[in-house]
Amino acid sequence: MTQSTYSEMMPQTAWGFRTVNPGDVVKSNQTLEEKSTQIAVDALDITGDRVVVPTYFVVEYPNGEKKALHHVLDAKEISDVIRQMRLHEEDEPNLGSHDRGLSSVGLMLVVLMSLFTLLTFAIVIGIF
After folding, report:
1. What is the per-residue pLDDT across 5-24, written as a single tens digit (0 to 9) for each?
2. Could you give the angle at the alpha carbon of 110 between the alpha carbons of 107 and 113, nearest 5°?
3. Full-model pTM
4. SS3 of 16, please?
5. Rounded-to-integer distance, Cα 77 and Cα 71, Å
């Protein structure tokens, strides 16, 4: 796509180039708290469900630094953060979970199978 075609699609206004969503506008003088509450899209989709997309995702890095990442401009960095979180989850053992043996569903299956087996033996013994 050439620059002239792009310019025709995105006409320039007094504030710069218009975006599809008014909430996508980047304001340089916003604080982190203001950025965290800015909404890019708040609309109904074709099914009637409300779709709310934040303009910025606030990320806290391991060194304690907080950064607001724009959902379009910083999409690559957001993907990197999500990828790192997934890798970190896979590397960590489940510290909060304990192996409790059989779950309630497993216990219920064992009880039902035992009853089925006992009833089957009773019927087989009664026939012969």
Report:
1. 334 444 455 555 555 667 77
2. 150
3. 0.51
4. strand
5. 10
Phi, psi of 23 (to 5 degrees): -70, -10
- Nearest-Å Rg of the Cα atoms of the chain is 28
Compute the mean pLDDT over every residue in the chain, rounded to the nearest whole number.
Answer: 77
Q: Locate all alpha helices (DSSP H) within the chain, ordered by sequence.
A: 3-9, 32-37, 75-91, 104-127
d(CA 118, CA 126): 12
Tokens of 66: 């907080």
Coil, helix or strand at residue 74: coil
Q: C-alpha dihedral over 32, 36, 40, 43, to 10 degrees?
A: -160
Structural contact between residues 44 and 50, judged by C-beta atoms closer than 8 angstroms: yes
Residues 20-35 as b/e (b if ≥16 CB within 10 A, e otherwise) read eeebbeeeeeeeeeeb
Q: Taking a C-beta distance cutoff of 8 angstroms, is the pair 71, 59 a contact? A: no
Q: What are the phi and psi torsion angles at 42 (to 5°)? A: -140, 90
Mean pLDDT across 18-37: 79
CA distance 46 to 51: 10
